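Cross-posted from the bioinformatics board.
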Amino acid sequence: MKPIIKPSVAPYVLISPFIVLFLAFGLFPILFSFVLMFHTWDPVQGLASMQFVGLENLAFAIEDPLVWTSLGNTLWLAVASGLPQHLIAIPLAYLINEKLGRWRNAVMGAYFLPYITSTVAIAMMFSTLFSTDYGMVNAMLMKLAQMPLLEYVLPSANVDWLGDPKTIKPIVAFVVFWRYLGFNVILYVAAMQAISRDQYEAARMDGANSFQQFWHITLPQLKPIMFFGVTLTTIGGLQLFEEPFILTGGKGGMEYAGMTTAMYLYRTAFDYNDYGLASAISWMLFIIILAMTILTNKAFKGKEGQA
Amino acid sequence: MKKISSAIVALLLVFNAHAEKKTLTVAAYPSVDEIVKTALIEWKKKHPDVDVKVVGREYADHHTAMTTALATATSLPDVMTIEYGYLGRFAQSGALEDLSQPPYRANDMAKKFVPFAIAQAHTQAHGQVAMPTDIGPGAMFYRNDLAQKSKVKETELTESWDSFIESGKKIKSATGAYLVAHARDVKDIVIRSGIPADEGVYFDAQGQSVVGTSARFQKGFELAKKIRTEGLDAKVNAWSGEWGESLKRGNVSVQMMGAWLGGHLSNWLAPNTAGLWRSTALPERVATSWGGTFYAIPKKAQNKELAWDLISYLTLNRQQQQLAFEKFNAFPALLEAQTGTFFEQPVQFLGGQKARIEWRNTASQIKPTRVFKHDTIAEEIVNAELDLVLLKGKPIDQAIKDAHRQIQRRARR
């Protein structure tokens, strides 16, 4: 029977759905935003209203204090939510892998659950928990504050968690940490399972305790997966959008303390209708992410140039 | 053979009839989409050959989708619904039909509407770009039970801003309830009152910021600061979960908003508080509006005549306008629809008060305010500076100067 598609053409036909989708929704927006960076454009006036302005958008973005506020917030959140993810996920993964036996999968599943839960549901849950007048966190603090001694340590009035610029960022960082911890735990447990058991046996025979085994056998061999995990966290942290967007009501909170750069560029385009400026900010963010990824790469590279 | 040819002819006729049937697309957000669907029952009796597709999206999604449709000139609806907050941006686009030009007859109809609403959708460059359908005359909803317990009279709430704040102090000390949800709400009313003709809230006729020069902002900031200093605001933002909870539990005693809030309170925000609320005029009897809905026809729409016919029905038909008010709390922009028994009826949720008459009086006093495409960012900048005043004690003069400078910088773009 004659084939419907020529064998020489078949691979291209089979791969075409991906190529078409990638060109339409991947490459085209990237190229368009690059072009847009050098133009002003009011979209409601149609494509004809695009006007070339050279580097004006970039210059405006560099002088815009909100760009720098949002970049500062983004970096703060990336570090405060990203670093603990790994510092806690590695020992936690070690404990799960070595000590939990048949409960291992159930515990890993429990830690992974927040990762697959809808961001909107998570943010709404935390908004309710941290509500000033009706939240459980404040209710608990008020109860504890009635106990002797604790009254001197705990706040005497309800804390405005999501309204006070000082507390918005730590809350957002905590939610992001809580959400992605499980993902990193799974990553590290998988990597630990690939380490040969012989090495642990030999170490035990030489009298090494659990901590020494972890420090001298597990940790060094996790380096490649740490590089992968930290790179993902860095990129994800710098693109942070959903959690702060929902927790701050989409506006960034008081003094824009919870506004990340991804949020600001979204708002610049869709709320302020300034698509050229939004594109310029997005390319600035891209350069920063690229630089941070290169730095992460360099930090993890050994003397031999291997991660 | 004869049977087969008859069947073919019948099929062709059906196909032809289907091909001739026009499809009119209406894009709207809740609950305007429901209002349109309700209106179609009557409208389609006159147009049985027209299929109407109502595309309903959430409020922000709808306006983003309309922006994209105008940008690419594809998937444009025949009838586009625009909320007041987006009117400035869409009106100045030049992509909407001037409804004062033939074959439309907006000029002949203009007198039938509340003047400020017609003026809002009129631009010098592009004419009458939309028709108003509903408006939001400003009203003060207050908890009568809390006011009585605190021995505060309604007139004390409305007489002046000073008496309003004094009432708040009494309510707070007698009941523990806050006066308002957020100090910002008070600033928002003050900056919207006494706007000179041909100006917007933030910009003058030339598109220059008036934030640094208008006394409205100074007064608004001062009152907001006073309310915060006295501890009279609950520091909750409107439409947040906490806000809803505060209204349900009676932690906030006054909420100033569009008259449509009464419907929201009784339907879902605080149905448990039926009979406890009353409605009155805003302090100093300021007449201002909150929101409003408009219908427009994109220049590249496919069925402009039919679109105009439907818009005329939605905006000029008295029964339809009243139905939208009775069922969906959409206060009519059509003057003729602001009369009748429904307006005279007591509102049970407001303790049997005939509140609709008061709202109508307010609507008749509202002055037209121009809208500008940078209104959203200007509002955001002013609010951010007010936050600094309220939270960090930034001097008001400096905050207003900074807001003015930032708005000017944006407006130049």
